[in-house]
Write a structure and sequence with these properties.
Distance between the termini: 42 Å
Number of strands: 6
Strand order of the largest sheet: 3-2-1-4-5-6
Helix content: 25-40%
Order of helices and strands: EHEEHEHEEH
Number of helices: 4
Strand content: 15-25%
Oligomer: single chain
Amino acid sequence: MKNNLVVIGCGRLGSSIANYASQSGDDVIIIDSDESSFDRLDELFSGYSKVADATDVDALEDAGLPSAREAVITTGNDNVNLFLAHLCAKKYQIPYIYVRFDDPDKGLLIQGLNVKAIYPFQLSRDRFSLLRDGTIPGEDK
């Protein structure tokens, strides 16, 4: 195992990142409040899953968040994600932090922190533009 990655939120984005990282040989811990969300993980997923509330700091600490090298925050709630981004950056000083926001204005609230934001709408818009312009190799307009 080469990297300690904690993923908070096991929806489509969180589970796909956890699956990818696990297949890449990373040491992955994924956290979600709904145990059935772990059904999204591949059969080959070799990491750990933990049922916990993302706002329960004690549960996050028990899951190993303070010792993580990377944190990926993908819950469906921008306010929870913002809180977790600040927690990871300020309290735990995790070197690599990625946070998903639906609202691009939330990005203003992480300025100055070692946090990179992911905006699904922006990624989809950019992909649409590339498809429309025919600039993706192997994709016809």
